[in-house]
Design a protein that fits this description.
rod-shaped; alpha+beta; 262 residues; single chain
Length: 262
């Protein structure tokens, strides 16, 4: 048989547990409706967007409060860009004007240089003509006293640029009245006396078979200026040079003169 005390205790314990589950001390139960996940994400995005807009507004309001206005800065930047573009255009125009002025100046300088060269050439030509005129006038005044109708004037020999080269110049004159009917025709000859290695030597120009012999032929009526170059061994020393003039068809010297290189 069951003990009445033990049965009573078990009944009391079960009753106490029922009271805890359904009575005042029973745990609370919350009933919530189920929300879809995409609505949750949409709400989160909306909240973040509102926060971003609010932050931007607060940032812009703070800058305006501090004296900074984006619209004013944008207007000033656009104006500065327009001014820069206008300045660049003006700079290009001024550069074009400067280039044109420089070109004109260069042309003027070139023209001045050419004009100066022409003036120097004319001055030299005038001096040469004056010299020839003076010689010709002196020859006219001494016509009656001149035994030889052909004379050599202003004969000079000077070293040229390259070693062993010498330049010679002379003026040939015919006495007026000596040849009124025809030109003087003849040839020129240079006899060069030089020293080479302690030995004396002599050279004649033009040499036999020299292709430049045509430059030594003479044809003139009243006067003739002769200028040319002859070459010797650079190691040789030219002592003197004699120029001889021959008339065509004759081996007799018509006129001669000697000069020392200076």
């Amino acid at each position: 048989m069951h003990d009445p005390t033990l049965v009573r205790a078990r009944v009391t314990d079960r009753f106490y547990k029922l009271r805890q589950r359904f009575g005042i001390a029973a745990p609370r139960v919350a009933v919530r409706s189920e929300v879809a996940w995409y609505w949750r994400w949409a709400g989160l995005i909306l909240v973040l967007a509102c926060a971003a807009v609010l932050a931007a507004w607060m940032y812009d309001a703070g800058r305006r409060f501090a004296g900074f206005d984006r619209s004013e800065v944008a207007n000033e930047l656009a104006e500065a860009r327009r001014d820069l573009q206008a300045t660049r255009g003006e700079l290009e125009r001024l550069r074009a004007v400067a280039n044109a002025a420089e070109s004109r100046l260069s042309i003027e300088r070139t023209a001045q240089l050419k004009l100066a060269q022409q003036i120097r050439g004319l001055e030299q030509e005038t001096a040469r003509l004056r010299e020839e005129l003076a010689i010709f006038e002196s020859m006219l005044s001494a016509e009656s006293r001149t035994a030889n109708p052909l004379s050599i004037n202003r004969f000079s020999v000077v070293p040229d640029v390259l070693p062993g080269e010498y330049r010679y110049r002379l003026l040939l004159l015919l006495a007026p009245g000596s040849r009124r009917d025809r030109d003087f025709q003849g040839r020129l000859e240079l006899v060069v006396s030089l020293t080479e290695g302690g030995n004396n030597a002599m050279m004649t120009f033009p040499e036999a078979g020299d292709p430049s012999a045509a430059a030594f032929r003479l044809t003139f009526r009243h006067f003739h200026r002769v200028e040319g170059i002859f070459r010797v061994d650079p190691k040789a020393r030219v002592e003197n040079v004699q120029v001889r003039v021959y008339e065509a068809g004759s081996e007799q010297i018509k006129a001669a003169q000697t000069a020392t290189p200076g």
